[in-house]
């Protein structure tokens, strides 16, 4: 496959962009990293990810692949050179996907909420995050990496836990992932961050600290009624995209129910008037 035709739209401080970079380097794929400014999104980003308008976006032979976990699987399935990112066994693959999603769905939100909380609310969120880290600690016991002896999908998804978690919590004066509380997870962090490909790809801790310190200062007080209205507008925009995608088809994939239709089983809650094709 023409690895010279690979481009990655990303941001240097993005945990999700770095996932894709690590996977490409593990496979030995040459790629062009196209830096994005998320405060002024480029026409290229908006063209190739019009739905979410976010990084990373992998471009392979002009075709876009979005969402970091999906990109990791695409890289593994497309380039067989280098180490496997997902295991061959179907059960082991599904288990890896489960834990990668656990990190995204549980660990990420819990830590981000801590940074914007105070008092009792913060204490509850710290307890919640501690529970998630304990779950990961138990999953690691007896293994060097989440998949065994080599770095795989869950480890790459765990970039956030390995580096970003400590940076974000340091900015609010909290130390959570310690060797005393989480000896196995701390050992995994050291092994992962000192892996040659990971070490050359992830940003320096001090650079991340400076970036997020500035970002926190700029974003203070940005939430409120205006942000709520923006969220409503965004939701309506996404429904219009689905409405347009359905025109001329009974189901998203054609005449028969498929993956997208099953995923969209929330449609009875949509207003029938502005979205007739979705409602049908």
From TrEMBL:
- Span of domain GST N-terminal: 4-83
Enzyme Commission number(s) from the entry: 2.5.1.18
Enzyme's top EC category: transferase
Q: Where is the GST C-terminal domain?
A: 89-212
Q: Which UniProt keywords apply?
A: Transferase
For this protein, what is any one GO molecular function term? glutathione transferase activity
- Keyword Signal set for record: no
- The domain of life for this entry's organism is Eukaryota
Q: Give the InterPro entries listed for this entry.
A: Glutathione-S-Trfase_C-like, Glutathione-S-Trfase_C_sf, Glutathione_S-Trfase, Glutathione_S-Trfase_N, GST_C, GST_C_Tau, Omega/Tau-like, Thioredoxin-like_sf
What is the name of this protein?
Probable glutathione S-transferase
């Amino acid at each position: 496959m023409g690895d010279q035709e690979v481009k990655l739209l990303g941001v240097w401080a993005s945990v999700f962009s770095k996932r894709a970079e690590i996977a490409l380097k593990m496979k030995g794929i040459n790629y062009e990293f196209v830096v994005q400014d998320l405060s002024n999104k480029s026409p290229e980003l908006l063209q190739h990810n019009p739905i979410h308008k976010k990084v990373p976006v992998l471009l392979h032979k002009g075709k876009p692949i979005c969402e970091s976990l999906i990109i990791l699987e695409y890289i593994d399935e497309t380039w067989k050179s280098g180490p496997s990112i997902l295991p061959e066994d179907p059960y082991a693959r599904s288990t890896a996907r489960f834990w990668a999603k656990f990190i995204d769905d549980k660990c990420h939100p819990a830590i981000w909420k801590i940074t914007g909380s105070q008092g009792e609310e913060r204490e509850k969120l710290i307890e919640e995050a501690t529970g998630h880290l304990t779950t990961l600690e138990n999953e690691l016991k007896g293994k060097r990496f989440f998949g065994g002896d080599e770095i795989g999908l869950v480890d790459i998804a765990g970039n956030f836990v390995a580096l970003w978690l400590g940076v974000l919590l340091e900015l609010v004066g909290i130390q959570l992932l310690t060797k005393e509380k989480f000896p196995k997870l701390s050992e995994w962090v050291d092994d992962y961050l000192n892996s040659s490909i990971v070490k050359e790809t992830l940003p320096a801790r001090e650079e991340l600290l400076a970036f997020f310190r500035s970002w926190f200062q700029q974003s203070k007080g940005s939430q409120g009624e205006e942000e709520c209205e923006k969220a409503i507008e965004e939701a309506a925009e996404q429904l219009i995209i689905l409405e347009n995608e359905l025109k001329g088809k009974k189901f998203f994939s054609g005449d028969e129910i498929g993956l997208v239709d099953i995923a969209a089983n929330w449609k009875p809650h949509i207003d029938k008037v502005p979205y007739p094709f979705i409602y049908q």
